[in-house]
Every structure is written in structure tokens, then in C-alpha cells.
Amino acid sequence: MSKILLLLSIMGLLGTAVNTTPAAAETPHGAINVPPVLLQMIRDSAIQAELELSESQIASLRETLVEVDGPWFRSRNLSPDQQRPIADQLTQTLASRLDSILDPTQKSRLDQLVSQALGTRMVLRDKVQASLQITDTQMQSFVESFAQTDEQSRELQQAMAAGEKPADEVNNAIADLKTDERESLLKTLTNAQRSKLGSLVGKPFDFASIKRTYPLAPELRSEGAKWIDGTPVTLKQHRGKVVAVHFYAYQCINCKRNLPHYAAWHRDYADAGLVVIGIQTPETSSERKFDQVRAAAKAEGIDYPVMLDADSANWKSYNTTMWPTVYLIDKEGFVRRWWQGEMNWQGTPGEQQMRTTIEALLAE
Asked: Per the record's keyword annotation, is ATP-binding included, yes or no (predicted)?
């Protein structure tokens, strides 16, 4: 049993390592938080290498991600109840496409990886329940345990957000809750059921090696857009480079305080392969006037590409909700990190943190 506990302890790491709100799986016993692990992990090169995908398979997968990633990215600001049906539908679309892209051996291994990524919550999968012949009584016990973990985790995170508990204490407490959840699950399973777990998950995969779990960045839209220097820019043309896309409004004071940081990134990292792109999405009537936007950019000394997003097409495509916001996009076009608001607000070392991420992405 200790070996099985060790296996479960290294499973389920994907959901804990990803900074997204998990969807909630509806069960006959209630809603339980379950991260959309297939959506998250299939885009990463480590997973693709584990599946031994060919270049043509990766190209076909990317075509599917272009279709599903936009809606998935835009759903990030919704409540879990609103996210759930979107994530479920996109996961179904992705799974359907993968069924025609992957060969039987790859499908089998991917199924194992999904169960590994879910950890204890793999028992919510129909095929796992069927394979283990889980009883209604066992499922009731599992769901009650999961619900307790979720509720206590929410309370801890709320306490941390309110400044009542430090992050280290909260993270350690949540880790303890997950340990308790694993032990509870193993105690509830019979010896025969525990013996089948290994075949359901296969050899352990190091989910800590996964770097790419966020969607492809939406391509820049041209509707109502006008570029300050007259030359349109696309993300596709900068594939192979790291891109920082920042949304701002030139009269926004918090935006003004971030602008020197973007200029410094452009100055310090352009030769290393960083491209900075500004998108001025208007908040006021003055910010809709091209000449004023151009004059403001010149006054700020901006010498990287800037678009006037007059119809807010790009703002909506990214589902941006705050001025300023900046997104960091890796060399393959995937969003890797974003920051909303003033980066150094009240002493927060946000600019340095983003700079560290830029350097890491450039080194990949």
C-alpha cells in the first residue's frame, strides 16, 4: 500500500501546478473541482514527446488548439459554474480530434496520463469507475472527501487573500489536505481495486517537467485597428521569438507607470529575441483619436509597435478586463504568464518577476 500511496502522491501534480480555476464535475453526489487536465497538458512538448507524436501529428494538434484555445482562454474570468460547461465542451472537441490524430498506443498512454494528472479524482472518470467496479457507497465516500478538501482549501485561500495567513502556511495546509484525501481513498478501495491502479495510470510521468499549460495567444485582430507607424504586426510573423503584448490607455495613470518597464524590456531584450507590442484600447473619447494616441506614444518615447484598438476587438479577443494588462507569449505562441494592473503596485516586485519570466522564456 505504501507504493500505491507514493504513486498517488506524485500523481495529480498538474492541477496543483497550474494557476487556473478548476472546473467542477457534476456527480450524482454534487459538484467536485476537477481541473481540465487534457486541455492543459496536451500542448506541452514533454507530453508530446511522451506520446511520441510525429511532426504531422503535432501540426494537426495545433490546428485543433487554434480552434479550442480562444474560447478556453476567454472563459478564465468566469465563475467555476460558468467555466464548467465551456471546459467540458472544449475537452470533448479536443478528445474527438485526438481520436483521429493518435494511434491506439498513443491513445492508451494519453488515457493513463489523464488519470495520473487527476490523481485521486481519476475515480470520477466513468472508465475508472467501471474498471475498478466502484460501488455507490465508495463513490459517496470519495465525493465527501473531495468536497471537504475543496471547502477547506477555499477557506485557506480566502484567508491568504485577506492577509490573515501567509502563503507558505496555506500551501503546506493544502498539501496536508491532499495527503489526507489520498489516504482516505486508498483506505476505501479494496485490495483488488488497489492492485488495478497501476495498469490504469501506467508508468509515472514527471508532471513537474510541464511548462506549457495555458492556451495559444489569440492572433491580433485588424477590425477597427490602426498601427501608429502604419505597419501591421502579427504574432505569427514573430513565431520563434518571445512576445510581450500589453494593453493600455494613454490617459490611464497606472498604465503610464508601467510604460517605462515595457520600454526597458524592449531596450534590454530586443537583441535576445523579445518583441514588445502595445495595444491602446480606448477608455475615453480622446483615446479613440488616432492623432492623440500617436502623439502620446511619441511623448512617452515608445519605439516599439503600437496599435490603436479602436473597436476593442483585441481587448475582447483576449477578454482583458483591466488597464493595464500585459501577456508574455513564448516562442511557440502560447501564453505563459500575464499581469493585471500596475506591476510594482505598493512595493510588489511584479516587474522583476515578469523580467525573470522573460529571461526564462528567452532561454528556452
From this structure: no
The answer on 205 and 239 residing in a single domain is: no
Query: Could you give the C-alpha distances from 73 to 77, 108, 136, 228, 357, in angstroms and in order?
Result: 9, 28, 36, 28, 20
pLDDT above 70 covers a percentage of the chain that reads 91
At 177, the amino acid letter reads L
In a domain? residue 220: no
The Cα 217–Cα 319 span in angstroms is: 11
* 260 belongs to a structural domain: yes
Q: What is the mean pLDDT of residues 239-254?
A: 98
DSSP string, 57-68: HHHHHHHHHHHH
268 with 181, same domain: the answer is no
Peptide bond into 324 cis (omega under 30): yes
One domain for residues 11 and 155: yes
Smallest CA-to-CA distance from 6 within 245, 226, 183 is with 183
> How many Å apart are CA 146 and CA 119, to the nearest integer?
12
11 and 137 inside one domain: yes
CATH number of the domain at 327, please: 3.40.30.10
Query: Are residue 44 and residue 185 in the same domain, yes or no?
Result: yes
Task: Flag whether 215 is in a domain.
Answer: no
Domain count, the chain: 2
205 and 230 together in one domain = no
Number of C-beta neighbours around residue 235 at 10 A: 18
- 183-204 pLDDT per residue, tens: 999 999 999 999 999 999 999 9
Same domain flag for 52 and 135: yes
d(CA 3, CA 217): 40
Q: What is the pLDDT of residues 250-292, one digit of tens each?
A: 999 999 999 999 999 999 999 999 999 999 999 999 999 999 9
* Burial class of 263 by CB neighbour count within 10 A (0 to 12, 13 to 18, 19+): middle
CB neighbour list of residue 108: distance below 8 Å, 6 or more residues apart: none
Eight-state DSSP code of residue 135: -
Look up the domain containing 288 and give its range. 225-363
